[in-house]
Amino acid sequence: MRCVIVATSLAALIGLAACDSKPETVAAPAAPKYLARSQQMYAGQEMIDKVDAGTIAAGPAGSLTMAVSGSVGGAGYTNQAFLKRINAGPPKDGVYEVDVVADKPAAASAAGVTPIEVKGAWQPYPADHLKGVRFISKTNSVVAMLPAG
Asked: Which of 9, 27, 131, 141, by CA, is between 20 and 30 Å from 16?
């Protein structure tokens, strides 16, 4: 009789242990590590939500023209600009990092993805070291390489 009770108890414990299994939790992907640190943004300024495409080209008199198309969370963003990130020295790969920012609207606007264009120049830019620019937004980054020649 004692063996039957022990066997029944053991079967019940094994059955209960199987019921306590927890579903696997998927960890969020790690945020990308950037080599440079951001400059301080002014009040009301924030990164745009997403960068779709970016271009750079060497301009006249040692300037670098930059253009980005992306999106923000609503209409009314103004003063679009580029904030160069602070590097301790020239990047080894020659790709400098730039935050793409804009002033968010003071009043609430209709929510919805709104396209945005940001254009600017970097003067003087480090022509000896620069091979490309990484445009950084809240959710992604895009690298634009300087055309050869």
From this structure: 27
